[in-house]
Amino acid sequence: MANLNIRVDDMVKKRAEEILSDIGMSLSTATTIFLKQVIRYKGIPFELRTEPFYSEENKLADIFKLYGPWEDERTVETIIKEIRDSRVSKADITL
What we know:
The chain is mostly helical.
């Protein structure tokens, strides 16, 4: 029997273990089942796709609905970065 070491976010592991525990299965057993399905399907045993909600077009559509169109060549990511970069941290505030 082989050992498999993987890195995964702590919260993902915790939530998966809680759900699997509710159905009486260990994370190790669930991982083994997944790997056997990969072999059976000769690939990932479920469809992989992007979530349309998070597409660039939908981000812009939501912004247009809220604020109307604007004449700006920046991408949504650039605008968000600019907003984040302009925030004042607590360390910058003197009382």
